[in-house]
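Translate structure to sequence.
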């Protein structure tokens, strides 16, 4: 892997044929359930696929979007555990990578407030997307590399992935939607190296289908760490991973703030969903923020060697 700068995507016609003929007719799988849950959430689709991250950060700052920042120390712990087991850099696949947010935080040890400040700069207000990309490429190039990691980013948002590659945040980009299409053959070589899968704000958009299509290519049996909003049941993904010899553990006793509710209506709908799932929102969602939980899925033998609590003891 290393320096491949390529967006791999299935040819659109093939993608739509596959989606109609093969994958479009599921009954009550994870995607149907998640679609219903997503109806309660504010729709932010318009900010996900721009040629640079300015609008994304502008809109999400208003909602106090924080999950990549609070996820960072957890991912860092996992990276340092994996690092101890190998001499090579840790190969990360970031699902729903967007503009390379997790890559920026992990590779360069930046924080979410620093990213908000960076993309909110007055001097960038009038810049063209091309100027922002050039500015960012230099900006990230000049920062120290904090972690010895390489990052493959996967997202259906083609422009966001293209930005993250050009800015140097991603080492490889996969602009694919594995909910509706197959994994392109060209992607399998690099996925075979993956040691760690990360995701923030992504489960709910992706279901077990994406994992089922990725797993056969990830032959190193990577650890898989997902931050998942509490109204999205993780069962279907856990089952799909179990079929491949994975054991999933939830980090107990801890939730992670994702963002503020966009409206009283959104909060009310989410509280209804949590009630149906018998999830207690006291001191959490009732106070005005969406909360996520952390699920770590690993090959069974790794879980026996070091249960999740042990990984985060120090
Ligand atoms: C809330 S954003 C999270 C982005 C980033 N991980 C973060 O925390 O800042 C959700 C991301 O999921 C992506 N997404 C939505 N559906 C997807 C799919 N089917 N496959 C891959 N990515 C998808 C969106 O394009 C968007 O970038």
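Result:
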């Amino acid at each position: 892997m290393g320096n491949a700068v390529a967006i791999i995507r299935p040819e659109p016609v093939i993608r739509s044929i596959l989606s109609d003929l093969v994958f479009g007719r599921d009954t009550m799988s994870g995607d149907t359930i998640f679609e219903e849950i997503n109806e309660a959430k504010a729709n932010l689709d318009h900010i996900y696929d721009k040629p640079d991250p300015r609008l994304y950060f502008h809109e999400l700052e208003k909602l106090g979007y924080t999950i990549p920042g609070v996820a960072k120390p957890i991912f860092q712990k996992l990276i340092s555990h994996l690092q101890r087991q190998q001499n090579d850099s840790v190969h990360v696949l970031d699902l729903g990578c967007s503009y390379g947010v997790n890559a920026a935080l992990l590779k360069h040890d930046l924080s979410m407030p620093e990213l908000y400040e960076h993309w909110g700069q007055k001097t960038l207000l009038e810049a063209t997307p091309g100027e922002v990309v050039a500015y960012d490429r230099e900006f990230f190039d000049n920062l120290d590399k904090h972690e010895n990691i390489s990052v493959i980013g996967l997202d259906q948002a083609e422009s966001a992935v293209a930005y993250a590659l050009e800015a140097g945040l991603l080492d490889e980009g996969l602009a694919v939607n594995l909910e509706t299409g197959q994994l392109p053959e060209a992607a399998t070589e690099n996925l075979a190296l993956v040691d760690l899968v990360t995701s923030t704000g992504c489960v709910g958009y992706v279901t077990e289908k994406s994992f089922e299509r990725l797993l056969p290519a990830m032959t190193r049996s990577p650890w898989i760490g997902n931050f998942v909003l509490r109204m999205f049941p993780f069962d279907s993904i856990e089952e799909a991973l179990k079929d491949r010899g994975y054991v999933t553990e939830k980090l107990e006793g801890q939730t992670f703030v994702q963002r503020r509710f966009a409206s009283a209506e959104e909060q009310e709908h989410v509280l209804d969903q949590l009630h149906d799932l018998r999830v207690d929102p006291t001191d959490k969602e009732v106070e005005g923020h969406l909360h996520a939980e952390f699920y770590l899925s690993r090959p069974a033998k790794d879980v026996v060697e070091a249960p999740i609590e042990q990984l985060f003891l120090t």
